[in-house]
Amino acid sequence: MDPIFVLLLGIVIVFAGILLFKLHPFFTLIIAAMAVAAFTSTDMLTAYWVGEGESAEAAAKLASSSFGSRVAIAFGITCGKIGIVICMASIIGKCLLDSGAAMRIVRSILRLLGEKNAPAAMGFSGFILGIPVFFDTVFYLLIPLAKALAASTKKNYGLYVLAIIAGGSIAHSQIPPTPGPLFVAEMLNIDIGVMMMGGIVVGGIAAACGMVYAYWINKVRPIPFRDDEEGSDTAAQSWNDLKDEDLPSFWISVSPILLPLLLLSGKTVLTGMAGSVGLELPTWLNATVEWLGDKNVALTIAASLGLFTLYRAKNNQGDTVKTAMQSALASGGIVLMITCAGGAFGGMLQQSGIRSVVEQFSDATSIGLLPMAFILTALIRTVQGSATVAMITSVGILAPLALAGTLGFHPIYLAMVIGFGSKPFPWMNDSGFWVISKMSGMTEGETIINFSFMATIMATVGLIVCMIASTVWPMA
To answer: What value does the mean pLDDT of the chain take?
Structure first.
């Protein structure tokens, strides 16, 4: 079957399942993966496996396997790569929230920067917390504080809200272990430490530009203070009830976030520095760095630290830790199932011969691939609403080019552009749009002018920065 038909079939199933029939993304992505697998010709499958280094005999045997088993194998491979990381990240996020560590981080940043710089503090807090915590949860956590600040200062309510969005939403699409960027990094064979560092740097630039827009729109069209939305009174009261002496210390609170960052990036930095000067690390040091720098080990250590923090904060109540873990794994399990289903879908797209189709539209050796990847991801996001599903679908189409080794730049630029492409243009079919609108009290029109426009600006800035960096410092 023609790869273009197979590609369109898969995309139509994803869109129709999610938009028209309101099916769960997990089920929709599995159906799409099976459809793509079933309609991929044996010749295409054989050519794919030969390209993967298999002998002609082995390739023919793999191509003759049932489409159901091929989907299941791709699902399992994805789970093996990112399953532990997603589950541990969910535990870290839950522990930060339940132990009060997240609140300690926010209060410490606010004290450091002062009330005058409260918007920057809100943005920075959202950025830090958005690394291990899903964006919707970050927004739920910080919106009561934005309302408390606005009630105190009698101004800048919209600015505080947008600051949270600028920091939290960028981390959600750029920095692992958030599922979207984690999945993209794994699909493109990018070291997770490199992905984290790149996401922090370029994502920070994009978030800063989003803050510029937030300051401007706050002056031109300020949002009046509103405190009558659902859940705000209860959440705000919970902030006021907690005393500083009841919260973990700042360094204990931030350690589950910083530790995996240091371990993962440390592996990349140490080996890179040693290689650049022609040195070879001692065997024992190299083994230690490799062991601690493994993403599964690093996130497990961080999750253990988070659980210990929660255990101490709740006065050694074991049931609290058990309940928190069950809740975290329940929510993280859903995300894991969706992500692995996306991995199966992407794997089947790669086997369908889609690489030849993509190469017709872009020269993989130039930066022309980056705007194409951005537009493709943005279109998928705009149509179906989910940033994570958009990233999963887009990287499934584009990964064959990166894995073929024909890029003229490091694949991290492609990964970051796919993340930025998942930002524009959030509107009524996006659950995050309604979370922001209802919790902040903004009308639909105000949410579009403030949130949707700012997200599009940040995404465009990120694309431009990646295109410039891929030319100036390709690292190929």
So the answer is: 84
